[in-house]
Amino acid sequence: MYGCEAWTISKQIQNKLEATEMWFLRRMLRIPWTAKTTNERVLNEANKRRSLVRTIRKRQATFLGHVMRRGKLEHLVTTGKCEEKKSRGRQREKIMDGLATWLGPGKVSDILAAVKDRDLWRDMIANAYKQGT
């Protein structure tokens, strides 16, 4: 998970991360792949409260708060404000878009405004993490 703060997680990558996490849990619990055990049962046996994707999103949100409050070059890179012309084709997914969907309904501009208040930002991250979205 080193460097996961800079990952952009699309739905396809999220599905792969969840499948890998399930594979890890089955290996740790020594459940053979031939056993007909459902994923819900594996999760119950592991007493799993956290997921890998939620942990990554939380780390991304805390890193985003750090970068936005600092206000240097990283701020410009993260928000994607460049003076250049957009490239052709489908635009790449940004970290801000993924965090906006994870933190709940709201615009990216609302998130950038909330980052300035550290206590509000911590509360938003904690609520999103508890909800498991």
Would you write up a description of this structure?
The chain is an all-alpha fold. It has two domains: 7-48, no CATH class; 52-133, no CATH class. The protein has seven helices and no strands. It has helices spanning 11-28, 39-45, 52-70, 73-79, 95-103, 108-115, 118-131. It is elongated, with a radius of gyration of 18 Å. The two termini are 19 Å apart. The mean pLDDT is 82.
Care to give the gist of this entry?
With 133 residues, this protein is mostly helical.
Question: Segments where pLDDT lies below 50 for 5+ residues?
Answer: none
Given helix and strand content, the structural type is: mainly alpha
Q: Which oligomeric state applies?
A: single chain
pLDDT averaged over residues: 82
Biggest pleated-sheet summary: none
* DSSP strand count: 0
Number of domains: 2
Q: Which descriptors apply to this entry?
A:
2 domains, 133 residues
